[in-house]
Amino acid sequence: MQAIEEKMWTQCKCHGVSGSCELKTCWRSMPKFRSVASTLRDRYDAAIEVTEVRSGSRRDLIPRNHVQLLRSARDTDLVHLEASPDFCEPDTRTASPGTHQRLCSRTSNSTDGCAVMCCGRGFQRRQITEVQRCHCKFHWCCFVKCQECQVTIVEHICR
Which CATH number fits domain 103-158: 3.40.640.10, 3.40.50.1820, 3.30.110.30, 3.30.2460.20? Predict the structure, then answer.
């Protein structure tokens, strides 16, 4: 809600003869979804892991990472009390199989890309030759006749 409120903007429209702006109507407009999503993603990436410290009846949130102590937290910062699970390695507690031996895309910069999915461990290139049906033709009533073609498939697999 705060991210949306921060990005709200005033939009106005003039009314009158040939745009003379005798009457001006203004309203608050919602930001574009992409703009709000980008703001939230930036805040998520810069989120601070904190621990709760009680001092009398007060509760304070103190950054766990000493590097983050140098920067004072703002009202707009996201904080989390627990570290995110590591999805790179297998973890029975979270039922995560990890990313070892997973197929990845060598050219993608997204989460399916080898750079992200393989968690810096690198990847192997594997070449497979398969026999597939190809050049299929439908013959009038009632069958399809195909040739068999050898196709080479290149896969990339996380180490």
Answer: 3.30.2460.20
DSSP-assigned beta bridge partners for residue 50: 63
What is the CB neighbour count within 10 angstroms for residue 99? 21
* Residue 39 backbone dihedrals phi, psi, to 5 degrees: -60, -45
* Contact between residue 15 and residue 27 where contact means Cβ atoms under 8 Å apart: no
Contact 36, 4 (CB under 8 A): yes
CA distances from 118 to 35, 98, 158 (A): 29, 9, 5
Please tell me the pTM assigned to this model. 0.49
> 79-92, pLDDT tens digit by residue?
888 877 788 888 88
Closest to 68 measured CA to CA, from 58, 53, 78: 78
Other C-beta atoms lying within 10 Å of the C-beta of residue 16: 10
> Residue 110, Cα to own-chain centre: how many angstroms?
8
Write the single-letter amino acid at 140.
W
Residue 78: Cβ within 10 Å count: 13
- What residues pair up with 41 in beta bridges, in sequence order? none
Q: What is the DSSP letter of 140?
A: T
% of the chain surpassing 70 pLDDT: 94
